[in-house]
Amino acid sequence: MNFFESVYEAVKLIPEGKVASYGQIALAVGSPRASRQVGWALHNNPYQGIVPCHRVVFRDGKLTSGFAFGGMEVQKSLLESEGVVFKDEFTVDIDKCGFIF
Question: I want to staple 42 with a disulfide (CB 3.0 to 4.6 A). Which of 22, 31, 47, 53 is the partner?
Answer without folding.
Answer: 53
